[in-house]
């Protein structure tokens, strides 16, 4: 009995000891919070801190409490502002506070939020083992290791900060692992996405060190003289211990700081300045240096204008608070910061003032009017704007006209008040007709819908009402807007979709897109911008054709007539159009995942395209083309098929888009000829690019190129191979001939393909891109081969454009290059 009790006691002691050891290990691990291991994660306000508490890694939010963008970054622990020196996901912010950093099952670092979209931090240097850990070093370097070997480190991919020990330049030169780390400024002080300024060693003279503004202006700030690195402007950088290294495989610049208590680093600011920071003890100081050949200049914007103009009102700008009258908004300026706006305004003497149109300091708006009127608006708003000339001198002009301005302001207030009263009365009178209709139909979008529905009973009445009703029918929302009884709504069951295309009022489209707000813009192509909108509770994509667009009334009419009659799950649906006010606007169903190329050629997002999904997309495109060529009421040749014209809905279903260049074929017509070649080189068949001949086989060729891009993850138009072919088609053909087709496989996918399935897709793609149209299969054959995987497929002949022989080298091709060629490059909807 005593023995049994002793044994039981021993077991309890052993169990307690084990628990104590485990608890001690966990405690030590929490104390040494500079390491992340599999099974643990970093979330909420938790951080990693380097051993000597110099650097801290964690999630941060920009833009104050109203911002919903979160980033993973590293900052100096003693910095009171916690300004990150490195940002992991600067182009892919997380949208909520449920962010998590962890090491995935395959050993790679990922961050995610409640959307469960995993952003791969080390996407360009993947781990081959699941036995990895990540550590934050006292140098500020975040390193992913496997045992004693380094898989990836943040120093390889810097953002806007140059830290001691970091190397900028060229590495692994002449290999397929070549790297070119450089610094890129933030877009604005509160937006970490890539800005307009790049600090780097230029490719044409690697002994120089300087700053690029966009792709145009380069300002050299230093150079290597053969013995030491020198700088061209007065700055504290001369005190840094710079090193320049050059060999066959690498050329780079680096620097180190001396002393245990001192620490220095450089930042390329959103305004293009070089900021030299120093930390002594816990005190941090900074020196701002404009990048100018003229060291007497005190404005960074001067450094990025080749020849600053001598304007009558001067080249300096004064900062003030006010309201810019009738500003011109630059629609293409979403990626620009306030310093870019200053450079653009400074180089144009007619520009009186500039400002950013977003609270985060991005986007540009300009004023080109009377400077006196600009100053007259001073104090009337809270927007920060910059006015040309000296503010105090210009403001002295104001009193002479202040009485006139007061009278004009008084009349303006009275006029607006009267208009508001009249409109309110009209709305009150008409509202009884549509009371509760908007909230009954679409309660979650009542404010927008009620405004649009009111338009159905006012002004244009029946015409607007019929257009909105047709719009709902396009979406198979069986709703009738009945103006005979304002308290009833007809719900029609079993009614087939009406193929009459709704022609919507410009006001409806404008309200749906928030007056074509830049914030709603999805992208811009050769034919104009595409906006996201909401109309009667449904998300839409609005394609607003530019007046400078190559697509004129004929192409517009063509797309409207064609697409409105097409009914297939793999074709984008046209929901309506607008031809008011000389506008040419098309309204499509909204595609949440944008275009295929935005996934396929993005090193992070392509991970979501596992092999089964890629095959599904290929099959969907093939089904859509087969419908166009054979089963639609009109036999249609697309003529501009490419990955950017394959859109993906929220479930990643592929849909063919952009029919502006499509052609209708007659019942017995086989091929046609055009003197105006349109489309995108790299996807055009040789007979079309050279002779203007097109047929269904032209689309088959384009489909083959798309197939090769999908299975390889490489873009044909930008593909290069130093030892092999001119393009992706030639490279695939050479691999096929040598029995090494598997080398073309895109291995980034988390679920790699079976070699048999991959070989079948490669075989079919090569059949589609054969040089002679008669050798290519029909889309019915392609669909059959994809579905059945016939083992007796014919051997493909040499791919078109795979060498400098044939069409590419012909005189006809040279002649073609001088003819009129247009490009269709609409990238998103």
The mean pLDDT is 76
What's the CATH superfamily of one domain, by name? Answer: Transferase(Phosphotransferase) domain 1
Quaternary structure type: single chain
Helix/strand/pairing category: alpha+beta
Tally of helical segments = 18
Rg: 32 Å
Question: How are the strands of the biggest sheet laid out side by side?
Answer: 15-16-17-18-19
CATH class designation of one domain: Mainly Alpha
CATH topology of one domain: Transferase(Phosphotransferase), domain 1
Content of β-strand: 15-25%
Report on the biggest sheet.
Answer: 5 strands, antiparallel
Number of strands: 44
Overall outline = globular
Tell me roughly what share of residues is in helical segments: 25-40%
Q: What low-confidence regions span 5 or more consecutive residues with pLDDT below 50?
A: 18-32, 375-379, 392-403, 432-461, 477-498, 804-829
How does CATH name the architecture of one domain?
Orthogonal Bundle
Protein name: Receptor-like serine/threonine-protein kinase
Main location: membrane
InterPro entries: Bulb-type_lectin_dom, Bulb-type_lectin_dom_sf, Kinase-like_dom_sf, Pan_app, Prot_kinase_dom, Ser-Thr/Tyr_kinase_cat_dom, Ser/Thr_kinase_AS, SRK-like_kinase
Membrane topology: Single-pass type I membrane protein
What would you say this structure looks like, in words?
By secondary structure, this protein is an alpha+beta fold. Among the domains are: 1-31; 305-396; 432-590, Phosphorylase Kinase, domain 1 (2-Layer Sandwich); 593-822, Transferase(Phosphotransferase), domain 1. The chain contains 18 helices and 44 strands. Strands 15-16-17-18-19 form a 5-stranded antiparallel β-sheet, with no helix packed on it. Helix 12 (611-631) packs antiparallel against helix 14 (696-712), helix 12 packs antiparallel against helix 17 and helix 14 (696-712) packs antiparallel against helix 16. The longest helix has 30 residues, at 2-31. The radius of gyration is 32 Å and the shape is globular. The model is unreliable at 18-32, 375-379, 392-403, 432-461, 477-498 and 804-829 (pLDDT under 50). Residues 816-829 have a biased composition (Polar residues). Its main location: membrane. It is found in: Cell membrane. Residues 33-157 form the Bulb-type lectin domain. Belongs to the protein kinase superfamily. Ser/Thr protein kinase family.
């Amino acid at each position: 009995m005593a023995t049994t009790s002793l044994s039981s006691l021993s077991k309890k002691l052993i169990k307690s000891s084990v628990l104590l050891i485990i608890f001690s290990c966990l405690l030590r691990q929490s104390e040494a919070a500079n390491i992340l291991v599999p099974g643990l994660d970093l979330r909420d306000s938790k951080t990693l801190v380097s051993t000597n508490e110099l650097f801290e890694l964690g999630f941060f939010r920009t833009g104050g409490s109203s911002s919903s963008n979160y980033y993973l970054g590293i900052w100096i622990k003693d910095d009171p502002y916690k300004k990150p020196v490195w940002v992991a996901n600067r182009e892919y912010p997380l949208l909520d506070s449920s962010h998590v950093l962890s090491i995935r099952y395959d050993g790679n670092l990922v961050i995610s939020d409640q959307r469960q979209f995993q952003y791969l931090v080390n996407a360009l240097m993947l781990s081959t083992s699941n036995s990895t850990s990540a550590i934050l070093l006292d140098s500020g370097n975040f390193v992913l290791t496997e045992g004693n070997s380094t898989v990836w480190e943040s120093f390889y991919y810097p953002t806007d900060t140059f830290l001691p020990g970091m190397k900028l330049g060229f590495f692994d030169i002449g290999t397929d692992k070549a790297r070119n780390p450089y610094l890129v400024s933030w877009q604005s002080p509160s937006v970490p996405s890539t800005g307009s300024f790049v600090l780097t060693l230029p490719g044409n003279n690697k002994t120089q060190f300087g700053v690029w503004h966009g792709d145009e202006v380069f300002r050299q700030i230093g150079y290597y003289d053969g013995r030491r690195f020198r700088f061209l402007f007065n700055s504290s950088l001369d005190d840094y211990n710079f090193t320049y290294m050059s060999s066959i495989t690498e050329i780079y610049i680096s620097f180190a700081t001396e002393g245990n208590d001192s620490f220095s680093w450089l930042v390329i600011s959103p305004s293009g300045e070089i900021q030299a920071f120093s930390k002594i003890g816990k005190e941090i100081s900074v020196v701002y240096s404009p990048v100018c050949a003229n060291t007497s200049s005190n404005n960074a914007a001067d450094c990025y204008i080749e020849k600053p103009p001598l304007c009558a009102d001067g080249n300096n700008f004064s900062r003030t608070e006010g309201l810019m009258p009738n500003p011109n908004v630059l629609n293409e300026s979403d990626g620009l910061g306030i310093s870019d706006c200053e450079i653009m305004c400074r180089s144009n003497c007619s520009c009186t003032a500039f400002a950013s149109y977003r609270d985060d300091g991005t986007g540009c708006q300009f004023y080109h009017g009377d400077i006196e009127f600009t100053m007259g608006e001073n104090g009337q708003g809270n927007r920060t704007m910059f006015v040309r000339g000296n503010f105090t001198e210009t403001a002295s002009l104001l009193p002479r006209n202040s009485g006139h301005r007061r009278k004009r302001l008084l009349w303006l207030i009275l006029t607006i008040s009267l208009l508001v009263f009249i409109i309110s009365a009209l709305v009150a009178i008409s509202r009884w007709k549509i009371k509760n209709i908007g909230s009954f139909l679409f309660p979650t979008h009542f404010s927008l819908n009620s405004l649009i529905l009111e338009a159905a009973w006012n002004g244009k009445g029946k015409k607007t009402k019929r257009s909105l009703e047709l719009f709902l029918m396009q979406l198979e929302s069986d709703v009738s807007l009945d103006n005979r009884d304002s308290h009833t709504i007809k719900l029609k069951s079993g009614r087939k979709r009406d193929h009459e295309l709704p022609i919507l009022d410009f006001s409806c489209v404008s309200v749906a897109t928030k007056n074509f707000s830049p914030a709603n813009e999805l992208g811009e192509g050769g034919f104009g911008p595409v906006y996201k909108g909401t109309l009667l509770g449904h998300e839409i994509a609005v394609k607003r054709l530019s007046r400078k667009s190559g697509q004129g009334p004929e192409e517009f009419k063509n797309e409207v007539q064609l697409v409105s009659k097409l009914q297939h799950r793999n074709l984008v649906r046209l929901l309506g159009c607008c031809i008011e006010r000389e506008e040419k606007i098309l309204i499509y169903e909204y595609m949440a995942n944008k275009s295929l190329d935005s996934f396929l050629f993005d090193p992070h997002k392509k991970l979501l395209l596992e092999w089964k999904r890629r095959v599904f997309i290929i099959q969907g495109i093939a089904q859509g083309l087969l419908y166009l060529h054979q089963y639609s009421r009109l036999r249609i040749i697309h003529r501009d098929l490419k990955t950017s014209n394959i859109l993906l809905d929220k479930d990643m279903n592929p849909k063919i888009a952009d029919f502006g260049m499509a052609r209708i074929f007659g019942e017995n017509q086989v091929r046609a000829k055009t003197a105006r070649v349109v489309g995108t080189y790299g996807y055009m068949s040789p007979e079309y690019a050279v002779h203007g001949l097109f047929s269904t086989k032209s689309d088959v060729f384009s489909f083959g190129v798309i197939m090769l891009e999908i299975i390889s993850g490489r873009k044909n138009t930008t593909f290069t191979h130093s030892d092999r072919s001119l393009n992706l088609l030639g490279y695939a053909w050479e691999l096929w001939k040598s029995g090494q087709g598997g080398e073309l496989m895109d291995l980034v996918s988390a679920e790699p393909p079976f070699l048999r399935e991959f070989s079948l897709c490669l075989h079919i793609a090569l059949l589609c891109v054969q040089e002679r149209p008669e050798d290519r299969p029909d889309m019915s054959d392609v669909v059959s081969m994809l579905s059945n995987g016939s083992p007796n497929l014919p051997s493909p002949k040499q791919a078109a454009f795979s060498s400098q022989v044939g069409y590419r080298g012909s005189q006809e091709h040279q002649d073609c290059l001088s003819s009129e060629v247009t490009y269709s490059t609409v990238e998103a909807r």
